[in-house]
TrEMBL record:
SUPFAM superfamilies: TorD-like (SSF89155). It comes from Streptomyces hyderabadensis. This is Nitrate reductase molybdenum cofactor assembly chaperone. It comes from the Bacteria. NCBIfam families: narJ. Pfam families: Nitrate_red_del (PF02613). Keywords: Nitrate assimilation. Signal peptide: none annotated. The keyword Lipid metabolism does not apply.
Length: 164
């Protein structure tokens, strides 16, 4: 069984838009992270255009499936700005500068950060959000739920009384 670092990096790649590079990485992802095989097997068996259309349908048209962790805690409020600053500060504290096109709370970016640094602060602080996302993806019937299942299985339970 690979370490969680490999799983987090693989999960990050699985949760990004499935471009041509993604298709080329599928065999490596399948071998490196067996916990993600249900998803990688589905992705390998699905035509590229259908996989891309499904990603857009799941993640781009619905906030109910948001991959932005602070959205789950702050919504589209003024408080979200401070949450985003916390993410950037954490990256900087580890000598990393967030320069991606996405916001710093984008789950694939957070997973990649954790895989590189081992600092699970943001994943554990947003455990309830991850559980909510996982539940909604499962109810929606998307294979992306398998990726969240694997990530959540590595985390301690959400604190009792966490928001649902």
């Amino acid at each position: 069984m690979p370490g969680f670092e490999v799983l987090y990096q693989a999960a990050a790649l699985c949760l990004t838009y499935p471009d041509d590079d993604f298709r080329a990485r599928l065999p490596l992802l399948r071998e490196a992270a067996p916990q993600l095989r249900a998803f990688t097997d589905h992705a390998a068996a699905t035509e590229q255009c259908a996989l891309q259309a499904h990603y857009v349908e799941v993640f781009d048209f619905r906030n109910r499936h948001s991959l932005y962790l602070s959205w789950w805690t702050d919504g589209d409020t003024r408080n979200r700005g401070m949450s985003l600053v916390r993410f950037k500060e954490l990256y900087r504290a580890h000598g990393l500068e967030f320069t991606g096109e996405e916001l710093p709370d984008f789950l694939p970016a957070v997973l990649e950060f954790v895989s590189r640094t081992g600092d699970m602060t943001m994943l554990t602080e947003h455990r309830d959000a991850l559980d909510q996302l996982r539940s909604r993806l499962t109810a929606f019937g998307t294979p992306y739920a398998c990726v969240l299942d694997a990530v959540c299985a590595t985390l301690p339970p959400a604190p009792t009384g966490a928001r649902r």
